[in-house]
Design brief:
The protein is built from 10 helices and 10 strands. With 295 residues, the chain is an alpha/beta fold. Strand 4 and strand 5 form a beta hairpin. Helix 1 packs across helix 10, helix 4 runs antiparallel to helix 5 and helix 7 packs parallel to helix 9. The chain is globular and about 80 Å long.
Length: 295
């Protein structure tokens, strides 16, 4: 990040947080309302009660239907899963994928924290894992920003990101039911779909896919050096070659189709956030799509 976390958060609070305050809470509270996470006791079943909450063991023992009663979870625990791998360095200086991820993380931490929810962060890179335990204050959002700044300055390894391990790490951290927001470009290896399904069975999961134009298009610039951001492997190619451009486009389309299909099978909504788009507009669209999906 070019600016310090404090300066960046001040700018984002003025330009983004004020526009979104209150909208994000309404988009996700309904997903947990009334279901709760803390078991408090049993009571006899009555007309209109949700049969899914019947405790069949107690019902059989007492010969009368009884429900398991839970406290309503008015506060939400949010985990931000932040991809800090090498491919997130792609993009123009000051507005690359890792810059947009940092802005998104600060905005989400501040918005959810202002609503009284506890926000934690998992910063994942191959062979490295940093965790910021859940908290609520503005100072806590700045702590997440400081970790983002620290990981941005760290040297990157050459191994390809293991998306499955990133999602499994989130599952190990989030022991109680939570909202898990995964911020990544989803470029990497591993059987991530199975890991995502396991995570989504226990938690509400939302994916924010951060995309730069370099991910989707090959520039027409003659001979260029193409480098794999994850492995560091370099190759000289003719970017004007029509066959190369067709194959590149086919590979991008196939990648996007696999990602969409995997997310769909896991029941996880995925929202695309382009690096060249206004952040507030992108998040307003995410909230609108989330509400449409839950209505």
């Amino acid at each position: 990040m070019a600016a310090t976390p404090e300066k960046l958060l001040l700018r984002l609070e003025w330009k983004v947080v004020r526009r979104l305050d209150g909208r994000l809470q309404g988009a996700h509270r309904t997903a947990h309302r009334g279901s709760g996470i803390d078991f408090t006791g049993l009571r006899p079943y009555g007309d209109g009660d949700d049969a899914r909450h019947i405790d069949w063991n107690v019902t059989a023992r007492l010969d009368e239907p009884h429900l398991r009663v839970f406290t309503e979870d008015r506060e939400l625990t949010v985990w931000l899963v932040l991809d800090r791998s090498a491919s997130m360095l792609a993009g123009r200086p000051g507005r690359g994928k890792h810059d947009v991820l940092a802005e998104l993380a600060l905005v989400l931490a501040r918005l959810f924290g202002r609503g009284g929810n506890r926000v934690g962060a998992l910063l994942f890179d191959t062979g490295m894992l940093r965790v910021v335990p859940p908290g609520t204050s503005r100072r806590h959002a700045l702590r997440i920003g400081a970790e983002l700044e620290r990981t941005a300055a760290a040297a990157r390894g050459g191994a390809t990101t293991d998306l499955a391990e990133m999602l499994d790490a989130a599952g190990r951290l989030a022991r109680r039911r939570a909202l898990v927001v995964v911020l990544s470009d989803f470029i990497g290896d591993g059987d991530w779909e199975r890991s995502l399904q396991r995570l989504a069975r226990r938690h509400e999961v939302v994916a924010l896919r951060i995309v730069d134009t370099a991910d989707d298009a090959l520039p027409e610039a003659g001979l260029i050096v193409v480098e794999d951001a994850e492995t560091g492997e370099q190759l000289v190619v003719d970017s004007a070659d029509p066959l190369l451009r067709v194959r590149f486009r086919e590979a991008v389309d196939a990648r996007d189709a696999r990602l969409a299909a995997g997310m769909r099978r896991a029941g996880v909504p995925v929202h695309r956030v382009d690096t060249d788009r206004d952040l507030a507009e992108a998040l307003v669209e995410v909230v609108a799509r989330t509400r449409d999906r839950s209505s």
